[in-house]
Design a protein that fits this description.
This protein is an alpha+beta fold and about 700 residues long. The chain contains 13 helices and 38 strands. The protein binds (2R,3S,4R,5S)-2-(hydroxymethyl)piperidine-3,4,5-triol (DGJ). InterPro entries: Aldolase_TIM, Alpga-gal_N_sf, Alpha-glycosidase_related, GH, Glyco_hydro_36, Glyco_hydro_36_N.
C-alpha cells in the first residue's frame, strides 16, 4: 500500500491519507472519485488542504480519523476520558495499518492514555461504510484504570452539507422527521433511555439544502447499538462539518483495567447523490445480504383479546386466521403466571395453569395442525414487583437497592449483568421454545431504563445491552430456526445492533393507517419493508380512536411484513372475504415487495403520499391521501424508479376495494386501468407523470406496473 488507502463500492469512495501526522486524515468521503493512482490521490490531498487561519494553530486543520486537541481540533473529540484525573490529552500516533478486501485497519498507539486503538473501516458492496474502534488498555494490571467518557467516530462532510434530517417521536408516532439548518456549533441527539427509544435520531442525515427522496447529495449515520447513544453533526468556523457518534457512556460506566478492551458499536455511514431513496437503497442492500425465507403472514392476538386468554376463543381465532391465509400465529402478552393485567407476572416465565390448565399444547397443536407457525410474546428484560421472581430475587431488579424509583407500566428492569438472572431467563425461554416448538418470539421492552445501576451502584446499560445480545445469540444458537421480533412499546428499539440478531421490528403500536403511512415511510429509510411489521387493525383504531376504511388499512399494511391484529371472529363475511383477498395479494406480491427498490416521491400536496417498490420488470405504487388539501386536482404524479427507455403497462389493483374519490369523473386512464392494462412509455411515466384522481382523505390507490413486452 502506498500513502493512501482508498475504499470504493457502488459509487461511493472513501480515501484516507496515511502519511498525515500524527494520525491519518480522511481526505474524501462521498462520490467515488474513480480509480486514482498515487499521483491523483496526492492531488486530492494537496488541493484539499485548507488555509492556515489567523488566530489559529499554525498547521492546516483537517479532520483526522481520531480528532484530538493535539492536532488543534476544537470540536467534538474522538476520545474523552482520564486515568485517575489525568491523561486527559490523548496523543495517538499511527503504528500499523493494513488494507485488504475494502477493509482498512489502522492501529494507533497513545502514549498519554496508554491506549492502543484499532480503527476499522469496511466498505460493503452496497456502498455503506462501517466504522468501528477497539480501545485496549495496557497489560500492566497495577495501573489505575482508564475511564472512558466518550468515543465518537467522526467523518468530515463538505461545507454545503448544512441541512440536517433526523427523527423524533413518541409512543404511536415513531420516526417523525425533523429538519434543522446547521449553524456553527453542534446539533446533538442523545438517548438516555437504555434503548434508542421512540424518539431515536435513527438515521442522522445531512445534505445540501432541499434534498428530497429522489434528489440531492446526502451523508448519513446510523449507530448500530441498542443502548444509550449519541449522534452529533457539528461545524466550527475553522473546520469542516463532521458527522459522528457512538455509544453514550455514563460517568464511571466504562473503566479499562490492565489488558481490558472496549469495542464501540458499529457506526454505519452512507452517502448518496440520489437523495433519501438512494440512501435507503444502500441500507436495504446491506440488510438483504442475510438470507430470509418468505415473510409469513402473521396474526397477532394482542388487540384481538388482550389479556383475556381463553382457549376456545383463541382456537376460533386460529381457525379464522387459517381460513384467511395466515401463516404464523403469535400469542401475545397474558399467557404466563399471574399475568391477568399489566401490573403483575412479568418475570414468571412459566405458563399460567389457571388459564391454560393443559399448558399451551392444545393451542400450539391446533395452530400447527392448521399448517401455521407458532409465535409467543416475551418481555425478558422486565419484571413486575408483583411476581415470584421479584419476591425471590429482589437483588435481580436493576436500580438503587431498596428504592428502584418510579415504576413505568408497573414494571422494573431485570439486571441481565447478574449471571444468575441471565441464566434464569435463558433457561426459562429455552425450555418453552423446546417444549412448544416455538418458531418466533415477539421480544418486547416496555420501559425506559432510569438509574440503571447494579447493586453496587455501577451504571450498567453498556453491559446490560451486551448481555441482551448474548441472550438472544445463545437462544439462536440453541434453536437455529427461531425468529425474533424486536418490539419496545412498538418501535422503541429499532437499530441495526439488535437487527443483526433478530428478524423484524414492530414499527409501532399504532395500526391506524393514517399514522402508519408516515411511520412506515420513515422506518423504511433504514429498513427494507420485509423487516417492518405492519398489521391490519380493526375499523376503529385502538390507539387513536380514528375510523378508517378497510381498503386503506389493507393497502397500508401490504407494504411491510404484513399481519392481522384484530378479532377475526367478530368480522363480517364481507370483511373476511376482503382480508382473504388481501392475504392472497400479499403472497402474490411478496417477492416484489420484499426484494425491490423502495421509491418515494415528494408531492406539492402535503396531504398526499406516493411510494412504491420496484424491480426490474415489475412495480407496485401506492397513492395515499392522508388529509384533504386546498387543491382541487391531485395533478400529474411522476413514477420514480422506472426506466425511461422501456414501455410499461399499468393497472389499478381493485381486490381491496376501490378508494372513494371526490370528483364528477376520475381521469379516463383510471377507469381504463381498473378494467385492464393501460400502455405508456417509461419516459411518460417518469418525466411527465400520470394525472391522479382526487381521493377522499383516508384512501389509497394501488397501481401496478409491469414491463410491456408486446
Ligand atoms: C407493547 C407492544 O408494543 C404491544 O404490541 C403488546 O405486545 C403489548 N406490549 C403487550 O403488553
Amino acid at each position: 500500500m502506498g500513502r493512501f488507502a482508498q475504499l470504493r463500492a457502488a459509487g461511493t469512495g472513501f480515501v484516507v491519507d496515511l502519511a498525515a501526522t500524527p494520525v491519518p486524515v480522511v481526505v474524501h468521503w462521498g462520490r467515488d472519485l474513480g480509480e486514482l493512482d498515487e499521483t491523483g490521490l496526492a492531488a486530492l490531498a494537496f488541493v484539499g488542504e485548507p488555509a492556515v487561519l489567523n488566530n489559529s494553530v499554525d498547521v492546516p486543520r483537517r479532520c483526522s480519523v481520531w480528532p484530538t486537541e493535539f492536532e488543534g481540533w476544537a470540536g467534538t473529540p474522538a476520545l474523552e476520558g482520564h486515568r485517575g484525573g489525568i491523561a486527559t490529552t490523548p496523543r495517538p500516533r499511527l503504528v500499523e495499518h493494513s488494507l485488504a478486501d475494502n477493509r482498512l485497519e489502522l492501529v494507533l498507539a497513545d502514549e498519554i492514555t496508554g491506549l492502543r486503538i484499532t480503527l476499522t473501516y469496511t466498505m460493503d458492496s452496497s456502498g455503506v461504510l462501517s466504522a468501528q474502534a477497539t480501545l485496549a488498555a495496557p497489560e500492566a494490571i497495577d495501573a489505575e484504570p482508564y475511564e472512558v467518557a466518550s468515543v465518537s467516530i467522526l467523518l468530515p462532510l463538505p461545507s454545503q452539507a448544512v441541512e440536517v434530517l433526523d427523527f423524533t417521536g413518541k409512543w404511536c408516532r415513531e420516526r417523525s422527521p425533523q429538519r434543522t439548518r446547521l449553524g456553527h456549533g453542534a446539533h446533538v441527539r442523545e438517548s438516555r433511555r437504555g434503548k434508542p427509544g421512540q424518539d431515536s435520531p435513527f438515521l442522522m442525515t445531512v445534505g445540501a439544502p432541499g434534498f428530497s427522496f429522489g434528489d440531492g447529495e446526502v451523508w448519513a449515520l446510523h449507530v448500530a447499538w441498542s443502548g444509550d447513544q449519541r449522534y452529533v453533526v457539528e461545524q466550527l468556523p475553522e473546520t469542516p462539518p463532521v458527522l459522528g457518534g457512538g455509544e453514550l457512556l455514563r460517568a464511571g460506566e466504562l473503566r479499562l483495567g490492565g489488558g481490558e478492551r472496549y469495542e464501540t458499536p458499529i457506526s454505519y455511514f452512507a452517502w448518496s447523490d440520489e437523495g433519501l431513496d438512494g440512501l435507503a437503497a444502500r441500507f436495504h442492500a446491506l440488510q438483504r445480504k442475510r438470507p430470509r425465507s418468505p415473510r409469513p403472514l402473521v396474526l397477532n392476538t394482542w388487540e384481538a383479546v388482550y389479556f383475556n386468554h381463553d382457549l376456545d376463543r383463541l382456537l376460533a381465532l386460529a381457525d379464522a386466521a387459517a381460513k384467511v391465509g395466515v401463516e404464523r400465529v403469535v400469542l401475545d402478552d397474558g399467557w404466563f403466571r399471574g399475568r391477568r393485567a399489566d401490573n403483575a407476572g412479568l418475570g414468571d416465565w412459566q405458563v399460567d395453569k389457571t388459564v391454560w390448565p393443559q399448558g399451551l399444547t392444545p393451542f400450539v397443536e391446533h395452530v400447527k395442525g392448521l399448517g401455521m407457525q407458532f409465535g409467543l410474546w416475551f418481555e425478558p428484560e422486565m419484571v413486575n414487583l408483583d411476581s415470584d421472581l421479584a419476591r425471590q430475587h429482589p437483588e435481580w431488579v436493576l436500580g438503587v437497592p431498596g428504592e428502584p424509583g418510579p415504576p413505568s407500566r408497573n414494571q422494573y428492569v431485570v439486571d441481565l449483568t447478574n449471571p444468575e438472572a441471565w441464566t434464569y431467563l435463558l433457561t426459562s425461554i429455552d425450555a418453552l421454545v423446546a417444549e412448544y416448538g416455538i418458531d418466533y418470539i415477539k421480544w418486547d421492552h416496555n420501559r425506559d431504563l432510569h438509574e440503571a445501576v447494579d447493586h453496587t451502584g455501577r451504571p450498567v446499560v453498556h453491559n446490560q445491552t451486551l448481555a441482551l445480545y448474548r441472550l438472544i445469540d445463545e437462544l439462536k444458537v440453541r434453536h437455529p430456526g427461531l425468529e425474533i421480533e424486536s418490539c419496545a412499546s412498538g418501535g422503541g428499539r429499532v437499530d441495526l445492533g439488535i437487527l443483526t440478531r433478530t428478524d423484524r421490528v414492530w414499527a409501532s403500536d399504532c395500526n391506524d393507517p393514517v399514522e402508519r403511512q408516515s411511520i412506515q415511510r420513515w422506518t423504511g429509510q433504514l429498513l427494507p419493508p420485509e423487516l417492518i411489521g405492519s398489521h391490519v387493525g380493526p375499523e376503529r383504531s385502538h390507539t387513536t380512536g380514528r375510523r378508517t376504511d378497510d381498503s386503506f388499512r389493507l393497502a397500508t399494511a401490504l407494504f411491510g411484513h404484513a399481519g392481522i391484529e384484530q378479532d377475526l371472529t367478530a368480522c363480517s363475511p364481507a370483511e373476511i372475504d376482503k382480508l382473504t383477498a388481501w392475504a392472497a395479494m400479499y403472497k402474490e406480491l411478496r417477492p416484489l415487495l420484499h426484494s425491490g427498490r423502495v421509491v418515494r416521491a415528494e408531492l406539492p400536496d402535503d396531504g398526499l403520499f406516493f411510494h412504491g417498490v420496484i424491480s426490474n420488470e415489475h412495480g407496485l405504487f401506492s397513492l395515499a391521501r392522508i388529509s384533504t388539501s386546498p387543491a382541487g386536482q391531485s395533478w400529474r404524479v411522476r413514477l420514480p424508479g422506472l426506466s425511461r427507455a422501456r414501455d410499461y403497462r399499468l393497472r389499478i389493483r381493485a381486490e381491496l376495494g376501490l378508494p372513494s374519490m371526490r370528483q364528477v369523473r376520475a381521469p379516463e386512464w383510471v377507469t381504463a386501468a381498473i378494467d385492464g392494462w393501460v400502455r405508456a412509455p417509461g419516459s411518460v411515466l417518469v418525466d411527465a407523470g400520470v394525472a391522479m384522481p382526487t381521493l377522499d382523505p383516508g384512501q389509497a390507490l394501488l397501481l401496478e406496473v409491469i414491463v410491456d413486452r408486446a
